[in-house]
């Protein structure tokens, strides 16, 4: 087992990669969560639309969405080249934000424009001082240190099906991929983990977010799942594959996590999920001595469950119930 | 870890589920392998086309294909209902075969027509006496005891995304799914493993075969990969999910195996793969004492590899080389 490397400095804010296509018309669970984490109606949100090909249109859409959800202090910025990404006014705008929201589009454009510039550094600084950094689609990918830059879909892992380049590094030890189920990116993330087994692969479905706290806990929100691929113990010949040859990978650990599930990126283990019993309690063994004397047989309910004596688990109940 | 249950009786023949769409025009790797295992040009092959909606057309296509590859003793049968699947002449045909080949189509039709009939029993008997039983697509699924009967595509595991029913049981402890990458059936197989964690999920790509020997070794042939999903250690709340809710599954073990890889279905571990070092040898530590005295430094080749002294591995070579 390689040492788990997914860590964030203490005091850092939440990082919230979103798998793209978050709901903007219905319950807007994901966008509401961004606002909640950023301070509710007192939030100060900066929308960065550099990745998008839609220009100011996408900026205006998010400004209206956040305003409609009760946040009045929303600013859009759109550096288009590294020179603009050095603008002191843009840095000052980020410096006062409680949340940075990066739109979807082309993450290679976003990365080549802002990584290693004053704007990129300001986003990192905002994260370190406790601001929320959220990003959807391309904006999610760039949260990684080793970022998916491009690649093709399909379930089979193949050589060169995906490429990485440097991202913002808000999440270290984690490669984020997005539109995961919808664009069938399983093979691409598998191939990236084969080539980078020190990185945990995190695939996020559309309208789904991974909310990562400073302690390295990832909580899932939204409609789909977050898929986690752990290659720590993988046996692979990926380094021998050429062309379109599928990759041999044996012993990956896989997790599919819907909303409410909490996963520890440092220990690489599930912490909890809705409906799971508390792991800290040992399995119960019930004997006749455990049955409260005044317990009335709940005949109808037991009958309704079709319970057999071999499977019935009798719980202790206080005498007053 | 639950006890691995994938076993076959000693003396039984090879079972060869194929992921569908095996090459019928080019190298025909998969079909040639069926013939090789069945005795080469002396093979006696029965083609069962019950699953197909193409009727005699598909039977004739396979008769011609096998004939073109040098097998003259090929017979097609097509029981259309359970009454026909009791026909003694069909049973006698299977009884003398060295290979049974089941075509693609609708595995629920195939299963409801032959499972538990004299034809179904004859296929099982053929397997037990050492004949090859191969099947493509629907014909692959029916090899399982717990067979995928139907379901929809998509990477996210969801409740009721796949259903199982009784297959021929030639492979026990293994649920076979086919057209795996091409129809994006990852989520469906994950959901089936969530509901049946005692079963190993085996997803087979198109033009790819899993060749399973009596000892429970699975070898991959063909163009794609065989994906294995092991739920022995899974933590899941799949039993609480309803409707279209995605399933929580944590701690699955995953393997993607291209051609040449060998996997043990009983121990659920990779045995070997092309390009992997021999696992039985300990890692080498080279010291100066290991360097043969007459070894001429192969300066150009070492320079070409850009080898550093810290990474160079020196191999012993006989004095004559």
Automatic annotation (TrEMBL), chains A, B:
One MF term in the entry's GO annotations: peptidyl-dipeptidase activity
InterPro entries reported for this sequence: Class_I_gatase-like, Peptidase_S51, Peptidase_S51_cyanophycinase
Origin: domain of life: Bacteria
Family listed: Belongs to the peptidase S51 family.
Function: Exopeptidase that catalyzes the hydrolytic cleavage of multi-L-arginyl-poly-L-aspartic acid (cyanophycin; a water-insoluble reserve polymer) into aspartate-arginine dipeptides.
GO-annotated biological processes: proteolysis
Active site: 137 (charge relay system), 179 (charge relay system), 206 (charge relay system)
Alphabetic keyword roster: Hydrolase, Protease, Serine protease
Enzyme Commission numbers on file: 3.4.15.6
Catalytic activity: [L-4-(L-arginin-2-N-yl)aspartate](n) + H2O = [L-4-(L-arginin-2-N-yl)aspartate](n-1) + L-4-(L-arginin-2-N-yl)aspartate
The keyword Signal appears for this protein: no
SUPFAM superfamilies: Class I glutamine amidotransferase-like (SSF52317)
Protein name: Cyanophycinase
Native species: Nakamurella panacisegetis
């Amino acid at each position: 087992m390689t040492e788990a490397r997914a860590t964030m400095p203490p005091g850092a804010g939440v990082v919230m990669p979103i798998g793209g296509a978050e709901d903007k018309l219905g319950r807007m669970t994901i966008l509401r969560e961004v606002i909640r984490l950023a301070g509710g109606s007192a939030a100060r949100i900066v929308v960065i639309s550099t990745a998008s090909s839609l220009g100011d249109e996408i900026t205006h859409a998010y400004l209206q969405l956040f305003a409609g959800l009760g946040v009045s202090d929303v600013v859009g910025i759109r550096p288009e080249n590294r020179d603009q990404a050095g603008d002191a006014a843009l840095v000052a705008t980020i410096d006062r934000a409680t949340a940075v929201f990066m739109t979807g589009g082309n993450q290679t454009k976003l990365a080549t424009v802002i990584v290693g510039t004053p704007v990129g550094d300001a986003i990192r600084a905002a994260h370190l001082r406790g601001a929320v950094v959220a990003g959807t689609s391309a904006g999610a990918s760039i949260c990684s240190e080793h970022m998916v830059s491009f690649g093709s879909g399909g379930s089979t892992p193949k050589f060169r099906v995906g490429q990485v380049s440097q991202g913002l590094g808000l999440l270290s030890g984690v490669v984020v991929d997005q539109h995961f189920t919808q664009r069938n990116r399983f093979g691409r993330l598998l191939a990236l983990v084969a080539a980078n087994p020190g990185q945990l692969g995190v695939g996020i479905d559309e309208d789904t977010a991974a909310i990562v706290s400073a302690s390295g806990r990832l909580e899932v929100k939204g409609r789909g799942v977050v898929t986690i691929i752990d290659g720590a113990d993988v046996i692979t010949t990926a380094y021998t594959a050429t062309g379109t040859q599928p990759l041999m990978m044996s012993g990956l650990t896989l997790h599919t996590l819907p909303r409410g599930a909490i996963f520890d990126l440092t220990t690489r283990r599930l912490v909890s999920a809705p409906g799971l019993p508390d792991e800290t309690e040992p399995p119960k063994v019930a004997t006749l001595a455990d049955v409260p004397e005044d317990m009335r047989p709940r005949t109808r309910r037991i009958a309704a469950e079709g319970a057999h004596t071999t499977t019935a688990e009798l719980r202790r109940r206080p005498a007053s119930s």
